[in-house]
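note to self — DONT lose this again. spent like an hour looking for the file last time. sequence + predicted structure for the chain T wanted, 70 res
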Amino acid sequence: MKKFYTNLTAKKMAELEKIAMTASYSLKERGGIDMRHNDREDFPEIEIASIQVMLEDAYRLGLEDGKKTV
């Protein structure tokens, strides 16, 4: 997966991609969250409930990561 505008490690990006692909069927079928520079592929329709699940799971991932550094 190519990184764009982020300072996250490849491991963290992979964890976030897993969250996204688990929560959204369209992202899973697309095969990931990497940019393809194609409007039809880079702007999939995603339902609001999936976005909420992704945000909550990413928040929990951040909380767990924060506990490890303290």
